[in-house]
Amino acid sequence: MKTIIITGGAGFIGSHVVRRFVNKYPDYKIVNLDALTYAGNLENLKDVENANNYQFEHADITDAAKIKEVFARYQPVGVVHLAAESHVDRSISGPMAFVETNIIGTVNLLNAARETWNGEWEGKRFYHVSTDEVYGSLGETGFFYETTAYDPRSPYSASKASSDHLVRAYYHTYGLPVVISNCSNNYGPNHFPEKLIPLAIHRIQNNEEIPIYGKGENVRDWLYVEDHAAAIDAVFHKGGLGETYNIGGNNEWTNIDLIRLLCKIMDQKLGREEGTSEKLITFVKDRAGHDLRYAIDSTKLKTELGWEPSLTFEEGLPKTVDWYLANQDWLNHVTSGEYQNYFKQQYQER
Ligand code: NAD
Ligand code: DAU
After folding, report:
1. What ranges do the domains of the chain cover?
2. Which pLDDT tens digits describe the chain residue by residue (350 residues)?
3. Are residues 60 and 7 in contact, defined by beta-carbon separation less than 8 angstroms?
4. Which of 81, 147, 220, 238 is the most exposed place for a label (fewest CB within 10 A)?
5. Residue 4: which H helix or E strand, with range?
6. What is the secondary structure of 149-218 as a DSSP string?
7. pTM score, two decimals?
8. Which atom of ligand 2 is nearest to the CA of 160?
9. 3-state SS class at 27
């Protein structure tokens, strides 16, 4: 059995990647390496936790000695690295955790892979999962290409850019077999409700204000999370070494239009009169350094690796709402304790 370590597998995207790999590749032993921060939740993986080819390993990627020990014990042939601090607003109020996990943590993994593989690169692969935010902010037109110069503008995106550079440096300097992808905004089941879409679903359901930063004019390109997991599968298995692949939904929405659509869907699903949920929209102080627009060109991934998104937004968004309405326990569990304190700090002075 080939052992693949997936880091951050208890998080939003990681859990979808773990599920896909566990179910699709019975010949792989999938080790989910996760520190279980506020964003990590093993409930996301209840359906695969007893699978023969699945193993959870509780470890923090900032702990270099522990990571080396884990790699020595499992002898993985592949790494899919998703573990990260992922929320831009948290990076503004506390950048150090982002430097520690996203930069130092990534270097610890690179070092452990390099030491374990010890120059025998054949059949080995270190896949770093990154974000389109490394490219900065677009004006009203244009797209991010794989060749677009990096211009990160938040502590989160700067830490991800830094980790991307280090991954490429290990490829050029040591020959470590790496591949990188940069993806746009994901949405779907298990998305932590600090992020716009699940935050809004949760608050509409509870008849609470929906906070929209600035005028709601910022544009994001949304992709259903399982389509990202499918792209990760394709890049991990077929991507060229040292290559970068952009992943996006070709699905741009201003925040205000997206929230209006969501309000309409929620009114229907909750049996409310049309227009009820929209009244909850509240414009609040803008995010510092708020990137105006992201738009990804994923032609390379489509033409070279044959990937296409399977769901339109009009299909994926109601499906996502259905999942949240059917999974109240999941929401109640993740919105208790630490998250509530964070929510107060984040919005009390807006
Ligand atoms: P998430 O915040 O939902 O999950 C992160 C996971 O990493 C959690 O399970 C957490 O416990 C774990 N983790 C955090 N710090 C750790 C540490 N020090 N050691 C071990 N585990 C740790 O994140 P997500 O939204 O699923 O994003 C996953 C990856 O994909 C990140 O690298 C992110 O930058 C990237 N990405 C996310 C999006 C998006 O829209 N969410 C888009 C593009 C790229
Ligand atoms: O583009 C990929 C990135 O997408 C990932 O790398 C990040 O990990 C992920 O969190 C996401 O970043 P964003 O900052 O775009 O996502 P977020 O859900 O935080 O915000 C989406 C948009 O909504 C953004 O323009 C800010 C706005 N927003 C967000 C929140 C939380 C609001 O208007 N109000 C809010 O309360």
Report:
1. 2-186+224-250+292-312
2. 999 999 999 999 999 999 999 999 999 999 999 999 999 999 999 999 999 999 999 999 999 999 999 999 999 999 999 999 999 999 999 999 999 999 999 999 999 999 999 999 999 999 999 999 999 999 999 999 999 999 999 999 999 999 999 999 999 999 999 999 999 999 999 999 999 999 999 999 999 999 999 999 999 999 999 999 999 999 999 999 999 999 999 999 999 999 999 999 999 999 999 999 999 999 999 999 999 999 999 999 999 999 999 999 999 999 999 999 999 989 988 887 666 676 677 766 55
3. no
4. 147
5. strand 2-7
6. PP---SHHHHHHHHHHHHHHHHHHHH---EEEEEE-EEESTT--TTSHHHHHHHHHHTT--EEEETTS--
7. 0.97
8. 6
9. coil
60 belongs to the catalytic site: no
Annotation says 252 is catalytic: no
Domain 2-186+224-250+292-312 bears CATH identifier 3.40.50.720: yes
Query: How far does residue 265's CA lie from ligand 2's centre (Å)?
Result: 20
Radius of gyration of the chain (CA): 20
